[in-house]
Amino acid sequence: MAGYTYKNLRTEVTDSAPRFGLGDSMEAHFARNALDCERSGLSYQKLGPGFRVPFGHSHAEQEEIYVVLSGSGRAKLDDEFVDLEPLDALRIAPATVRAIEAGPDGIELIAFGAPRTPENDAQMLPGWWADS
Description:
CATH class: Mainly Beta
Radius of gyration: 14 Å
Shape: globular
CATH topology: Jelly Rolls
Oligomer: single chain
Low-confidence stretches: none
Number of helices: 0
């Protein structure tokens, strides 16, 4: 096996959003398996204008960093909000509950997570925005 893996995140990594009924407003390309990641994970996400990810989530072990590529929005982090714009980088501790809401032009970001944990150490919280 080569010491590297090369993939285009949009065209060569499956968009998972349609599988969860979110395909009209979001793209979510989770690349850790496609890239054969051994110690980390990576995703490309694109949210349409004003779209809010309908759930929050946290992790047992995985720290994440979100890097905004284009557009704007905000992150809800527990009970706080952080405005986001291009090239902002946001580190999120594992236990912090988080979700993203796109601004008027949408938002495009890369999410990097480490360490790579068993298939998924995320705790999903449906309806988490209801308090906002």
